[in-house]
């Protein structure tokens, strides 16, 4: 299973229903299919696996610049190209929005995963290059959501636009009041992001259709930095998108 984001690519190797291994790669737009194939083969080999074990693959991509070369690289490595998740595929998800064909593949598989795992109304907060809020009903309807600037994008913008503010590693702050410049930046970015997430979630809940109170789940590579600081997030599932890809593969009749 392949989750192609604008910053990172997450690979997951499933043995039946179990996630046997997973890896994160930097999304590099200039790599050739041969390079992607070599990287994939190397990761599998180092983990004690073979490309011959990969009987099927599915990809969700929000990075068009690398989608084709990654798919071609997978094809070179394992002998078949991955099935691409698209809004037009026949999956048990209703895209109940004004422009269903514009819904990202990651949001489609997050919907599948949320319904399969929780079977209740759910808000999925996905911390990636952007922070997305996916609003999902228990019966598998994606009813829309929110797209906000990502955590690292906000930190990078701050350091680039303010010459005297250094780029800072985003480690969790121990106090809100920083006593050094780096601590002030960490506090502002991380507590600011956590409070923004909580505020948006509360606004979403206030508009939620029906009487159900949605369950709030975090996922994505940066989730672990915000979840401890948030009051509204109730659970974290770091592999939600990979689990959604596995469910999509099953619904599409793929076997492995």
Structural descriptors:
six-stranded mixed sheet; five-stranded mixed sheet; 2 domains; Nucleotidyltransferase, domain 5; alpha/beta; 256 residues
Structure write-up:
The protein is of the alpha/beta class and 256 residues long. The protein has 2 domains: 2-84, Nucleotidyltransferase, domain 5 (2-Layer Sandwich); 94-241, ATPase, nucleotide binding domain (Nucleotidyltransferase, domain 5, 2-Layer Sandwich). It is built from 7 helices and 11 strands. The strands form 2 sheets. A 6-stranded mixed β-sheet has the order 6-9-8-7-10-11, with helices on both faces. It has a 5-stranded mixed β-sheet with strand order 3-2-1-4-5, with helices on both faces. Strand 10 (215-219), helix 6 and strand 11 form a beta-alpha-beta unit. Helix 1 crosses helix 2 and helix 3 packs across helix 7 (240-251). The protein starts with a strand and ends in a 5-residue tail after the last helix. The mean pLDDT is 90.
Question: Main sheet: which strands, in order across?
Answer: 6-9-8-7-10-11
CATH architecture of the largest domain: 2-Layer Sandwich
Q: Any idea what the shape is?
A: globular
The secondary-structure element order is EEEHEHEEHEEEHHEHEH
CATH class of the largest domain: Alpha Beta
Q: Which stretches are poorly predicted, pLDDT < 50 over at least 5 residues? A: none
How many domain regions?
Answer: 2
The largest pleated sheet is described as: 6 strands, mixed
- Tell me what portion of residues adopts beta-strand conformation: 15-25%
CATH superfamily of the largest domain: ATPase, nucleotide binding domain
SSE-based structural type: alpha/beta
Computed over alpha carbons, the radius of gyration is 19 Å
Number of helices: 7
CATH topology of the largest domain: Nucleotidyltransferase, domain 5
The first-to-last residue Cα distance is: 11 Å
């Amino acid at each position: 299973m392949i989750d192609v984001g604008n910053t990172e690519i997450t690979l997951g190797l499933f043995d039946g229903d179990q996630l046997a291994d997973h890896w994160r790669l930097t999304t590099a737009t200039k790599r050739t299919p041969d390079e992607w194939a070599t990287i994939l083969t190397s990761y599998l080999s180092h983990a004690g696996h073979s490309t011959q074990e990969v009987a099927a693959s599915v990809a969700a991509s929000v990075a068009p610049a690398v989608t084709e070369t990654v798919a071609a690289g997978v094809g070179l490595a394992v002998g078949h190209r991955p099935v691409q998740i698209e809004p037009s595929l026949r999956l048990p998800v209703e895209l109940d929005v004004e422009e269903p064909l514009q819904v990202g593949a990651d949001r489609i598989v997050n919907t599948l995963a949320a319904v399969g795992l929780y079977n209740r109304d759910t808000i999925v907060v996905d911390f990636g290059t952007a922070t997305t809020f996916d609003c999902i009903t228990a019966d598998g309807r994606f009813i829309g959501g929110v797209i906000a600037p990502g955590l690292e994008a906000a930190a990078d913008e701050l350091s680039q636009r303010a010459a005297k503010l250094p780029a800072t590693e985003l480690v969790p702050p121990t106090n809100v009041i920083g006593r050094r410049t780096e601590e002030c930046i960490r506090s502002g970015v991380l507590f600011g992001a956590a409070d923004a997430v909580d505020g948006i979630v509360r606004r979403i809940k206030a508009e939620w259709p029906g009487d159900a109170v949605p369950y709030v789940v975090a996922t994505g590579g940066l989730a672990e930095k915000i979840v401890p600081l948030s009051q509204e997030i109730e659970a974290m599932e770091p592999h939600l998108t990979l689990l959604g890809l596995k469910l999509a593969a099953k619904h599409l009749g793929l076997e492995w």
